[in-house]
Design brief:
Layout lengths: L7 H9 L17 E6 L5 H17 L7 E6 L6 H12 L2 E6 L1 H7 L16 H11 L6 H4 L3 E5 L4 E3 L7 H8 L3 E3 L2 E4 L7 H9 L22 E4 L3 E5 H5 L1 H13 L1 H4 L4 H12 L5 E3 L5 E3 L37
Parallel strand pairs: 1-2, 1-4, 2-3, 6-10
Antiparallel strand pairs: 4-9, 5-11, 6-9, 7-8
Helix pairs in contact: 1-7, 2-3, 5-12, 8-12
The structure holds 2-acetamido-2-deoxy-beta-D-glucopyranose (NAG) (5 copies).
Length: 330
Amino acid sequence: MRRWNSIWAVGLLWLSTPACATPALTAATAATDAAVALLADVRNPTTTEAMLRNLATLARTCAWARRYDVIVFHEGRSDALRPRLEALGNRTRLRLRARDISDEFATHAPATTDWPRRRLRTFGIGYRRMCRFWFSGVFELADVRNLTYLLRLDTDSELRCRPRSRDPFELMARQRAVYGYVAVKTDHPMVAKNLTAFGAAYARRVPQIEDAFYRFPPHAPTNCPAPMFYTNFEIMNVSWFAAPRAVAFARAVDATGMIFGNRWGDAPLRWLTLALFAGRSQLLCFGGEYDYRHRGPQDHCGLSFNISVAGCQAAGGGAPVLPPPLPRSL
Ligand SMILES: *[C@@H]1O[C@H](CO)[C@@H](O)[C@H](O)[C@H]1NC(C)=O
Ligand SMILES: *[C@@H]1O[C@H](CO)[C@@H](O)[C@H](O)[C@H]1NC(C)=O
Ligand SMILES: *[C@@H]1O[C@H](CO)[C@@H](O)[C@H](O)[C@H]1NC(C)=O
Ligand SMILES: *[C@@H]1O[C@H](CO)[C@@H](O)[C@H](O)[C@H]1NC(C)=O
Ligand SMILES: *[C@@H]1O[C@H](CO)[C@@H](O)[C@H](O)[C@H]1NC(C)=O
């Protein structure tokens, strides 16, 4: 098996001299400025069990996972969670730590919404807070802002490495990518009301990106399909998402009240942010790099949808153009 250099500092140096992309054969040392992060629901034993099981699988199959911190965000007391994380850390040598984010949650969320219907109970206030947290709240945390990259997983994300799977952070750094993902889909229309129209209106107020992967429809009706990155696996360049233009966009989203009002999700909002400010070459599709499952295998870099609703096509009629799967030779 080919072994790439895994010393972070060297990886960054290497970026400043892209002409000499020779893999160094040095031994692995700890890279401290990237982390894997999850948001636990400490009140739900079933999802917590699943999360611990999935983390054990990650540790067993991905050597690189032990080189980074694994942050388990949670809201409120974690007396039950902490010893279990410690035991898992002892057993797997994952560098696990619990991080209480109650303050972040409390600051932005209304106490209730008028729309957590029984039929859609996962779309209640807790879910909406989660959406806001992953969309923008996470980048407000000082210890996250200190990181170069964050790999986010959900409690039910099953990430297994194959023998040839590579370190995702090294791949991000080598490509100078700002965002890594495994699949692109569309969100449910019930929870994406006016989302594309909002993005399109915002796009008219900011400079256009040269090699944008998506052009907003010029006169989007309120019912346009909402493309999304499937954010239960995503890797973010933290400074890019913490930069003023992304923060200003997040404030504009907050001002609509639609995360809590209509349950706009972090996934289509991530798409909007990247469509507004990122070029195609800054995206990296990890579909196929890992055996990744979230309600089934997720390994499609291509578009699995067709934006065919009248008025919702991109300016000029073009479909989104996303990068191909990342090559083995990278
Ligand atoms: C983890 O390992 C440390 C050091 O060996 C030990 O003190 C601690 O009790 C262990 N924790 C658990 C929960 O197993
Ligand atoms: C962020 O990094 C700086 C410099 O390394 C360090 O002094 C500071 O304590 C870190 N802050 C947090 C919140 O981790
Ligand atoms: C939809 O979004 C546009 C652009 O942000 C806004 O002007 C309009 O009022 C919104 N319509 C509804 C029904 O929310
Ligand atoms: C992350 O994004 C920032 C802001 O765009 C950029 O300056 C930085 O070089 C990027 N980091 C890496 C490691 O590519
Ligand atoms: C998208 O849908 C439209 C209308 O149903 C159809 O004419 C078109 O061929 C489809 N395009 C693709 C790429 O599937």
